[in-house]
């Protein structure tokens, strides 16, 4: 099982534009604003992740975060595009750069696991095409490792 430190180590070495600084985290107020929108607490690993890393364009299609965030990297934006995700407790965490998304299923939190689904635009945005992980840190590590 990967830890947040394992993922942060990869963030430091994953290719990014030279002018792009190392990512920084969100503050408590920004995270609470998202939780107010969701009406439930964020899964622990996502909360922990957002405190150290908030929405930068690394990985194949970027990793998402809370305001302020780069355009196209704001979790809330995706709830406007796909309102059923909000009602299903699906939180978009990353994209693949081709119109597909990785969604964390916050409705199914057991023993520190939260399924991560791949949403393939060719099959629609309301059903996952596959499960790609069971823990956020393991998923993020694998996603970023693929960039090396």
SSE run = HHHHHEEEEH
Measured on Cα atoms, how large is the radius of gyration?
Answer: 14 Å
Count up the helices. Answer: 6
Structural class: alpha+beta
**Poorly predicted segments:** none
Helix content: 25-40%
Task: Give the termini separation.
Answer: 20 Å
Q: What overall form do the CA principal axes indicate? A: globular
Task: Summarize the biggest pleated sheet.
Answer: 4 strands, antiparallel
Q: Taking all residues together, what is the mean pLDDT?
A: 89
Strand content: 5-15%
Question: In which order are the strands of the major sheet placed?
Answer: 1-2-3-4
What does this molecule look like?
This protein has 148 residues and is of the alpha+beta class. 36% of the residues lie in helices and 13% in strands. The chain has helices at 4-13, 28-38, 44-52, 75-81, 83-88, 136-145; strands spanning 90-95, 101-105, 116-119, 130-133. Helix 1 packs parallel to helix 6.
Overview features:
four-stranded antiparallel beta sheet, 148 residues, alpha+beta
């Amino acid at each position: 099982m990967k830890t947040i430190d394992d993922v942060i180590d990869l963030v430091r070495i994953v290719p990014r534009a030279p002018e792009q600084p190392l990512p920084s985290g969100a503050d408590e107020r920004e995270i609470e604003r998202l939780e107010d929108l969701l009406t439930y607490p964020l899964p622990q690993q996502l909360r922990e992740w957002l405190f150290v890393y908030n929405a930068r364009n690394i990985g194949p299609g970027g990793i998402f975060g809370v305001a302020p965030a780069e355009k196209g990297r704001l979790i809330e934006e995706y709830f406007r595009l796909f309102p059923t995700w909000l009602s299903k407790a699906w939180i978009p965490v990353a994209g693949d750069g081709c119109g597909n998304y990785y969604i964390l299923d916050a409705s199914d939190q057991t023993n520190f696991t939260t399924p991560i689904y791949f949403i393939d635009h060719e099959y629609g945005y309301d059903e996952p095409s596959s499960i790609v992980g069971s823990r956020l840190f393991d998923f993020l590590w694998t996603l970023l490792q693929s960039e090396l």
